Amino acid sequence: MAIHVDEANQTFHLQTDHTSYIFQVLAHGILGQVYYGKKIHVKPQYNELLKRELKTATPAYSLDDPDFQLGAIKQEYSDFGTGDFRRPAYQLTQPNGSRITDFKYDHYEVVQGKQRLTGLPSTFDDTEDDAETLIVHLTDKLIQLDLDLSYTVFPHQDVIVRSANFKNHGVEAVTLNAAESAQLDLPDSQYDLIQFSGTWARERHLIRTPLRSGIQAIDSVRTTSSHQQNPFMMLARPNTTDDNGEAIGFNLVYSGNFLDQIEVDQWDVSRVLVGINPAEFGWKLEPGKEFQTPEAILSYTADGMNQLSQQLASFYSEHLVNAKYRRMERPILVNNWEATYFDFNDEKLLNIAKQAKRLGIEMFVLDDGWFGHRNDDHTSLGDWFVDPKKLPNGIGAFAGEVHDLGLKFGLWFEPEMISIDSELYKKHPEWLIHVPKRRETPGRNQYVLDFSRPEVVDYIYQMMAKVIQDTKLDYIKWDMNRYITEMYSVALPADRQLEMPHRYILGVYDLYARLTKAFPDVLFESCASGGGRFDLGMMYYAPQAWASDDTDAVERMKVQFGTSYGYPQSMMGAHVSAVPNEQNGRITPLETRANVAFYGAFGYELDISKMSEEEANTVKKQVVFYKQHRALYQFGKLYRLDSPFEGDGNVMSWVVVDDQQDHAIATRYQILNHPNAPYSRLYLKGLDPDKQYRVNDSEEAYYGDELMNAGIHIGSAFDDTAEVKQSADFSSRRFMIDVVK
Ligand code: DGJ
């Protein structure tokens, strides 16, 4: 049993294998947060944990109850304007203009398992993993509104999933101004905020800063989760490392505007809010209607950030990713984007596909430019029919030729977009998101379709479905190359315009849901100018995501290392591309490029038909090698060893270990080589201390404890890295660690 309720004291204790989450109904039906952390015993109540002092200059609940101060207690889902001046979990405007509410505890229910949400991506429990759901019902009697707080406990994953649902039973509409998915009031502020920030081509770099008094937040108002801030964040104690210490992870199963906020109050209580960004949000709740927030993920560990990453990665593959892809090895692909950009014809593409087949690659992906008359990024978005100048026999025939080679076939779409120069725009200019009589802001020379309108989603669905059928498609790269401006829908009334950002995302989810249902065998990879929508909402439909448009091996180290804190390797699309690199002109060895990309959903993104014989042979060997070890790379337990975000950032290393602790692959990357360098060692993790292993088929066997505690000697990159011919910079060393049978 994961949910323990003490009826007499109205205490709710949610227990996972290693954690406890406790809250209680306090005076006046207010929910008070009691504890979240390392597992403690179940008791009827926790008076010690609830102790507060009477605070001066803090409003009382009432004249009758002067000792109860909303601003001085830890709450579970708080309001604003009735004594607590910290930012609230929700706010709603009523017909008389008031934003004051009074939700009181009414009753609770516990249900087995975890229902999926309707219309939103969500977690589930179809593996009978003992999930239990607690729903706490609160009511505001004056306006006849119900508020259901839902908590699902995934005991073996140490994860709690939260969301809120507002239901209007009254006779008048109210407007939600804010509706967060979760609030967590922590008793102190001795935490570092660890966030993953960046920009296009430099996504998810780790930033660690101590909490301080006041509000600190990461958010997005771009209608994408964004390149700039990722919705995943951690709070970790100042002494927490990858190996030790307390850390709490927060994430949101959502792809639009989000808010992760921490407010450290005057007594150093830290209030965490996770949910839809209240900036650019509003929702008119008519009588009889409900509003469901997306789900927030909470996970705690006392054993360091690496443990947190592993429990999250395992949770997502069991309870968020489409079950079909849970452990399905992802095909090795070649994508033509960096090989040809828009300049291709069927002959050029088939040369790449034929070479792919020779090299053992499994899928050919045709990227942007195959439709309408798209020879640059000014045209044709929305016209999802083939450009006969490039593929004269049609997209079906071209797909047939690729399939005949024995390769899978994938296609690029950007379903949410429209170009002014398109057939679609001629037919439906009103489908473009815009404000009448105002300037329309382009992004990458294109505009966005109003996905809040079901007829738009339906039109795009029909077009895509036809192509999928004609091509017997195996894979779709779903791109999204601009943030949304002039957020407005000509189809919505004035008092619903603030609903537009959320309605837009619901439309995106609707299209994903329809396509994944109708075509369950199509593998989706999400993309948004690289990693601009690398989030859990996307992961529900698309088990992999293009991690970044920066394919340079050195830049990718940081992107992939940062991403690994919050997401599994199997999700990270990672390709070997040409040198000099398209984004930064850097020349790195082919070996290093592969050694970085191996730790993800692997592929190539360069003109393999023009490679030298020697390079082609290297690629062939890489493909054979990756096929042998891809299950380990994609689904093995990842341990971070040396961080590129620490010290001078010159070295990065990590290791993947299989479930039996029999095989592991460690890789150490060194950016610049130094002459007469100091000695260094690589200390492994995750091995069985009592098993003996060989390293790269060494004659000598080493105990796991020896490899982990005493480490492996790392020699100079210059004289013993056989593959490095031109330069010893940007080198990588791979260590195959295999148990002695
Ligand atoms: C941005 C993506 O991230 C690239 O990989 C590529 O698909 C281009 N868009 C195509 O326009």
Summarize this structure as a short list of keywords or feature phrases.
741 residues, alpha+beta, Beta-galactosidase, Chain A, domain 5, TIM Barrel, Immunoglobulin-like, ten-stranded antiparallel beta sheet, eight-stranded parallel barrel, 13 helices, 19% helix, binds (2R,3S,4R,5S)-2-(hydroxymethyl)piperidine-3,4,5-triol
What does this structure look like?
With 741 residues, this protein is an alpha+beta fold. The chain folds into 3 domains: 3-320, Distorted Sandwich (Beta-galactosidase, Chain A, domain 5); 330-635, TIM Barrel (Alpha-Beta Barrel); 641-739, Sandwich (Immunoglobulin-like). The chain is built from 13 helices and 38 strands. The strands form 7 sheets. Strands 6, 7, 8, 9, 11, 12, 14, 15, 19 and 20 form a 10-stranded antiparallel beta sheet that branches. It has an 8-stranded parallel barrel with strand order 21-22-23-26-27-28-29-30, surrounded by 4 helices. Strands 5, 10, 13, 16, 17 and 18 form a 6-stranded antiparallel beta sheet that branches. A hairpin with an 8-residue loop joins strand 31 and strand 32 (651-657). Helix 7 (454-471) runs parallel beside helix 8 and helix 10 runs parallel beside helix 11 (590-597). The chain is globular and about 85 Å long. The model has no long low-confidence stretch (mean pLDDT 97). Bound molecules: (2R,3S,4R,5S)-2-(hydroxymethyl)piperidine-3,4,5-triol (DGJ). Residues 337, 367-368, 412, 479, 481, 527, 529-530, 546, 549 line the site of (2R,3S,4R,5S)-2-(hydroxymethyl)piperidine-3,4,5-triol.
